[in-house]
Structure formats: C-alpha cells, structure tokens
Amino acid sequence: MSSKLIEIFNDEKLIDKIKRRLPHLFQLAELESSRAGKIGMEVGSLREKIITALLIYKFGKENVETEIPITESEIDANLFGVPISIKTITGARFGGVKLVWTVDAQKADKFRKNYYPSYDLLLIQINWGKAGGFYYIPLESQRRLFDKIGRENYIQLPKPGTNPRGAEITQEALSSLVRDKDVKAIEIPWKKTTIEFNPYKRWVDYWKED
Questions:
Q1: Residue 104's pLDDT is what?
Q2: Number of structural domains the chain divides into
Q3: What Pfam families has UniProt attached to this entry (predicted)?
Q4: For labeling, which of 14, 35, 85, 136 is most exposed (least CB within 10 Å)?
Q5: In this prediction, what percent of the chain has a pLDDT beyond 90?
Q6: DSSP H helical segments within the chain, as ranges?
Q7: Are the CB atoms for 183 and 136 separated by under 8 Å?
Q8: Domain holding 114: CATH number?
Q9: Which candidate, 111, 72, 73, 101, places its Cα nearest to that of 165?
C-alpha cells in the first residue's frame, strides 16, 4: 500500500488526538446542523469538512486539494493528487453508506451497471455511547471484494415505491471490507460531552464588528 493515508495510522500522537477530538468535533457538527432537536442532512458535509481539515492538519494545505467539482460525486479531496472518498455512518450496523445520491431509480440502476471502485476510502463509524471506528479502506481492498462477490452483492439499489436516495454499499459488503487484511482502523470511543452551543453567536459577533 503506497497511499499517504497510511501515515495517519502510524502516527501515535495523531491517533490519540483523533480518539479525543473527533467525537467532540462531530458533536459540534450535529449541533451546528440541528434544528428543533432534529439533525439536518447538511451534517454530512460538515463531517466531511472535519475529516478534510484533519488531512490538511497532517499533510499541509498545499498537499490537500479541496476544490472538487460538484460533478465528482464520490471524490471529497485530493491528497498529493490522489482522489479520496470520505463516508460516515451512524450506528453499530455497517449499512446506509451512499455511493451516489439520486432520486432517479433509472440513474441508480445505470450507476450500478457501470460502477467499479476507483478511490481510496476513509470511513467513519459514529456510534454514540459505544465504540465506533475510523477506517482506511484501500482501493485494492474494495476491488478485491467487488471482483469476488459481484456488483449485485456489492451495491444495493433503493426498493421500488420507496423514497429513493441513491445506491448504497450493501451492509454485507461493507462489513467484509472493514475486516479486510489491508484495512487500517482506529477504535473511537464515542462519548458526548456537555457543550454550550449558540449557532447564532459567531454571526452576531460579525454584526458587532465595525
């Protein structure tokens, strides 16, 4: 494995910081995107920014490209010119990770027919009150499993008649991926802390400026 992402999992100080800071930062993201106690869809984008910021912190701003065209639905950043996909899931089960977002069932079907893993994957499993994980799933691991089980078992399409949100990696495939011999993992204790949070404070502070 030649990916620079491996360096994160060999850096003991950074591993300790990820274990301590990631739950706090993701809790802030939830507070930032909540309204009347409900977490909005935008929390996903905030989580991706937090992980991208981790890459910038570790590897330097000059080595992390964040201006990715919106047409590149799977790419969230380029690290030393190499595309990376960032995914987050919540809960103990490895399910619900979207490969492509679309409300068009035909487009989702076409996506599955043409899909082949193309990018390294950083997967964060959020499991509040319990243990979750921060995983690096190399492209080679994804392709090895895809070739072994086939696209029908790797990609799940929305059920007809439901509100389709896109094509997902099947729970069985993702559970197999995180156990792959080449996957790197950091166990994260997902503990919430008491945070005094006011979503309007920083904006009010800006209004106060001359």
A1: 74
A2: 1
A3: ThaI
A4: 35
A5: 69
A6: 12-32, 43-59, 105-114, 139-149, 151-154, 171-177, 201-208
A7: yes
A8: 3.40.600.30
A9: 101
